[in-house]
Amino acid sequence: MPFFEGFKPALRWLTFVALLGLAQWAVAAQMLVYSADAALAGPMIELDAQERKWLAAQPQVVVALTQYPLYLFKDEHGHWSGFHHDVLERISAMTGLRFVYDETFSSEQLLERLESGEADMSTMLSMNDERRMFLDFSHAFGGAGWVLIGHVEEPSVQSLAHLAKKVLALPARHALEATIRRDHPSIELRVVKTYAEARALVESGEAYATIDNEIGARLYPSGRLKVGDVLEGKWDADYLAVRKGQPPLLSILNKALDAFSPSELRAIRHKWFEATAPATAPSIRESIAWQACWGMLIIGVFTVLSLLWNRRLAALVEQRKDAESDLRDQLAFQRTLMDAMPDPMFVRDQQGRLLTCNKSYEEHLSARLEQMQGRQLIEIDVFPKDTAALLHAEFMAQLQTRKPRFSERQLMFKHGLRDIYQWTVPFYGADGQLRGLMGGWSEIARRTRQT
């Protein structure tokens, strides 16, 4: 019996740790349920007569957007998702508004849709003087800082003052463009179409820095880029931007945002942005739990140690399975996202051999990926021979210079001469080594129709 009496302290410790774990699991389960159902909870808000009349006459509200991961994007199943999507779903449940998404491919194109009246509102715009001329902005419901992004081999960019006489790449009609031109005239601004093009110029050394939302900047780490300091006094707040002339819509949106409780907004933000938040120190309760586990290991016997070891092995196996599942999901998402792009896109290695491409690329060249993969353009019959030789030579020369290329040109396809906007950019591995080229094209006639 004295032998079994020795187990009592260890068993008491084990029970204590188990109760703490159960409590943590219960709290986590409540948070999960809340974050999943928050968009559907709560009563309808009360609207006045003018708002109800406007709502009855308005079958849908067109929301102009550009895909921006975590905020508003299409998941691997082609469904809209993200922080702004959850907020709009919640507003729809509270008001009866029906939102329809109108996807654009740059901030400039998005603003043109709003100016022309093709769209009613957007969730993707920061406030500035230019935009206030034709847009009304709702109450803010969150936000993030603007950060400077520079080359990994250059000193960290600490402020706009450090960019005097240097090139800063920004997407056209960026929210900070007018302020920078006014307050920092010595900065040489280079305006491009998208954030991706701006980052590519910094990677190649043609620009010294660019600016992005803090969450977006930390979502796409690159071996040749690094995130610098937050711009002091500059805040990228979350607004609902409404085309002027729609005061009932703005009023309804503000009422809905006011109806959000702080805990509800916090739960939705936690759902999407927790992974990009800085790591926090463990709580006192977590520290006590770990100390209890170590104390139990010290005073336990071989049977208890064996049990813990087996549980540890089981947890490691489960983590490995989860990691493999997450990796498969990420690959599937990337494949779906690439195939969803309407323009042809391809990725080639350092010898010009095709690694992968999207569905549009296959359709334009009338060939399957399996027929082209691992082969150079000059080895397959998808372009006229002269065109294939020209493009292959350009790819190999670009791999030597390592500079991105964006150009409008005429190119002979098998089905005739076409005017296209062609882009190719080098891409690098996590170790900073050149891995190959990524590129694509779009027909200029279709791009003109979109704008």
Poorly predicted regions are: 1-7, 25-41
- The CATH level-2 architecture of the largest domain is identified as 3-Layer(aba) Sandwich
Structural class: alpha+beta
The CATH class name of the largest domain reads Alpha Beta
Give the helix proportion (percent range): 40-55%
Q: How many domain units? A: 4
Biggest sheet descriptor: 5 strands, mixed
Give the strand order of the largest sheet, numbering strands 1, 2, ... along the chain: 4-1-5-12-6
Q: Span between N and C termini?
A: 85 Å
Helix count from the secondary structure assignment: 17
The counted number of beta strands is 17
Radius of gyration, taken over Cα atoms and rounded to an integer in Å: 27 Å
The CATH superfamily name of the largest domain is Periplasmic binding protein-like II
CATH topology of the largest domain: D-Maltodextrin-Binding Protein, domain 2
Mean pLDDT: 84
Which range does the strand content fall in?
Answer: 15-25%
Give me some keywords for this one:
46% helix, PAS-like_dom_sf, BvgS-like_periplasmic2, 4 domains, 451 residues, alpha+beta, D-Maltodextrin-Binding Protein, domain 2, five-stranded mixed beta sheet, 17 strands, transmembrane helix, 17 helices, EC 2.7.13.3
